[in-house]
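Sample pair:
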Amino acid sequence: MGARGLPARGRRVLPGWAGSRTRWAPAAVSRGVGCRCTWCRAGDSAPLVAAWRGAARLAGKDAGGGGPARGGPGAVHQPGQGPGAAGPAALRPGGAALQLPGLHLRADRQRAGQPLRVLLRQKADWAMHKLECSAMCVFGQNWNPSETVRLTARILAKQKTHPERTQSEKLLAVKEFESHLDKLDNEKRELIQNDIAALHHFYSKHIEYPDNAALVVLFAQVNCNGFTIEDEELSHLGSAIFPDVALMNHSCCPNVIVTYKGTLAEVRAVQEIEPGDEIFTSYIDLLYPTEDRNDRLRDSYFFTCDCRECITKEKDKDKLEKRKLNEPPSAETVRDMIKYARNVIEEFRRAKHYKSPSELLEVCELSLDKMGSVFEDSNVYMLHMMYQAMGVCLYMQDWDGALRYGEKIIKPYSKHYPLYSLNVASMWLKLGRLYMGLENTTAGVKALKKAIAIMEVAHGKDHPYISEIKNEFKDH
């Protein structure tokens, strides 16, 4: 999907390129191509090395991870036509607004329950790979910088080797990213200092650093300008910086979606866009009610959204739907349950780092049972925990359990999310593959076709994901 922002700190990041899959990933891996270092020749018993796919396109492009920079007008659609201009012609849904180079990570056909097999194409990417490869050899099993640190290290290395603007900096350079440094609280500043310490620890022999003040600015820029790279099922793959795409402003009613093909970020219209209209993308997950969305925007990007959806709050009633009872719950009861829901969502996020899958599933089930006394199944807090439960079931290979949760999720997802949402497409895709695996071919084909209908607009009809899904029809 390419949502704005970097993954939460604290997640264990596996060795290699920033942004490899990190949660419960087995250690089996295909080794790199063309690298003779001890680490890359160590074989499948060595810790997991992350993927870099399509690295042959790296020359002249930015390294690292990032995303839209808050504060610039949306001039990205038609360079030279002024802030927010959509260009001389209207765009219809599915029309490609622009294609810009960057970086993309992808596992090699990863499926639930299978070892993560990845390919590291190092010959074309050697200048960047050697930055981490030598350090990985030194630290071995203790190589564990966060994704943000690895990303920043690559940005520094790229800026040293290519001081001139790159192909993806035609309108905006990385150094021009908004940092919001003056808005950082003490906690965020402390986290940045921790990242700087980790950068020095893991890369001290391999990078020339600017002074601490400059590093603080760079980490602040990275933290609020990160694109998250995801696969067709919205599993996290990595992060990338696309400076020119960073010019787009946010709206909770976006008229474009950013997707990825190889090393390109592609921006496609998902609404009719007239000449002169500003281009808006979404920085966040749009499932949640207005207050939650703006809490996230203020915390990560330091602004409050004033789009039509945030002003009217017209979807909030449905998103916070209460169970129809003989005696409706009091306003206080509803407020308390919303507070509980937000707390349990945060608790679950932290618990992913130390609880077992069965324990996580129990957290989901208990919270759903409690919230279900007040909320309808279509309430977004119920949907959030159902989605988490579905993910745990998939990991545990409980296909029937995953399917039950998915079938409850898909209808309200289609109602709450905007048209052509990748979240809806990915849920149809998950359901289709589950149906196929459980030999319900008719339901599987129907679900996969619904996913394709959305993805052909969001990704384009020629995207490899579309071909892969269509091949799944042929396999059955």
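DSSP finds 14 helices and seven strands in the chain.
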